[in-house]
Design a protein that fits this description.
This protein is α+β, with helices and mostly antiparallel strands. It has one domain: Alpha-Beta Plaits (2-Layer Sandwich). It is built from 2 helices and 4 strands. Strands 2-3-1-4 form a 4-stranded antiparallel beta sheet, with helices on one face. A hairpin with a 6-residue loop joins strand 2 and strand 3. The mean pLDDT is 96.
Length: 76
């Protein structure tokens, strides 16, 4: 089975960007979580065994205090 590569673009509440980036980086499957400039505040990179694991990953991301909105991009 081919792994699924995912980029998660995250908008965060003011003042919480560093805490959110750190918390996202600890979620299972996330390889990197970076604070960035531009329209998003944090970008996370994840490699998952399958698309079925994406739901669990996104539930983890959305449970982080300070996450306002996400946009998930699956690499093809």
């Amino acid at each position: 089975m081919v792994p699924v590569v995912v980029y998660i673009l995250i908008r965060v509440e003011a003042g919480k960007v560093w805490d959110v980036a750190q918390a996202i980086g600890k979620i299972s499957g996330v390889d990197r979580s970076n604070v960035v400039t531009g329209p998003y505040d944090v970008i996370a990179y994840a490699v998952l065994p399958s698309t079925e694991d994406l739901r669990q990953l996104m539930e983890g991301v959305h449970s982080v205090d300070g996450v306002n909105r996400t946009e998930t991009c699956i690499a093809i």
